[in-house]
Amino acid sequence: MVARNREQLIHIAARLFLSKGYKYTSIEDVCTRSGISRSNLYYHFKSKEELLFAVVSFWGNRYESALEISLGQQEISAKRRIESFIDLLLQEIEARGNKGTCPFIAMYQQSPVDAKDVHDRIQQFFKMLHELINKLLEQGITNGEFRAGISASECAYLFVSALEGSLILAETMNDISIVRTTSDRFFKLLV
Fold first, then answer.
1. Are 48 and 20 in contact (CB under 8 A)?
2. Helix or strand or coil: residue 20?
3. Mean model confidence pLDDT for the chain
4. Element spanning 69, H or E
5. For the whole prediction, is pTM greater than 0.90?
6. pLDDT for the residue numbered 1
7. Whole-number Å distance between alpha carbons of 19 and 15
């Protein structure tokens, strides 16, 4: 029950932080929406910033795990494994009504300036994202899926930048297909 309350608070806070904004979401909003008392929330989290860190860590762990699993599935093409990560992102974005397409960028921008733990965790996520995409691209180059001679590391930075830009455009334009189109165009550049 205790772990379930903590998890529920993180999920509710995540939705509220993305839909209303971190700054405009109160602890009372999280308690009301979750049905969990304020004292129970403070049992799990000492502050709103600590709750934000838990939300960012939840997303980071989820996406990093998905990519790490993909890395080991070498019987599947590297392109398909990266696309499965994008599929996961799109499913979650659609479940949120196409709001808060990149939780990391949104939370980085909305978090307090002195929220060092939050900023560090978001930076850690993007570093890990680059490393995992780099490894997947290296596998694709090695197995002949992508052309030889390209820099997997540079392409990984380009991919992450294009993905983040497409997530912002998808929300702004209310058209989630922009993410898939951007991904498809990216892979055409690699063959």
1. no
2. coil
3. 91
4. helix 48-72
5. no
6. 61
7. 6
Cβ-count burial 163-184 (b if 16+ within 10 Å, e if not): bbebbeebbeeeebebbeebbe
Residue 100 phi/psi, 5° resolution?
A: 65, 50
The CATH H-level (homologous superfamily) assignment of domain 53-190 is Tetracycline Repressor, domain 2 (1.10.357.10)
CA separation for the pair 39, 174 (Å, rounded): 38
Least Cα distance to 58 among 1, 95, 116, 12 occurs for 12
Reported as a single tens digit per residue, the pLDDT across 24-66 is: 999 999 999 999 999 999 999 999 999 999 999 998 998 888 8
Assigned token pair, 9:
């608070």
Average pLDDT over residues 136-146: 95
> Of 112, 14, 20, which is closest to residue 61 (Cα–Cα)?
14
Lookup: tokens for 50: 């600590």
Domain positions in the chain: 53-190
The single residue listed with the structure tokens 């009504």 is 97
Q: What share of the chain is helix, strand, coil (3-state, %, to 5)?
A: 75, 0, 25
C-alpha–C-alpha distance, residues 87 and 79, integer Å: 12
CA–CA dist 5, 74 (Å, integer): 37
Token match 């000492």: residue?
Answer: 46
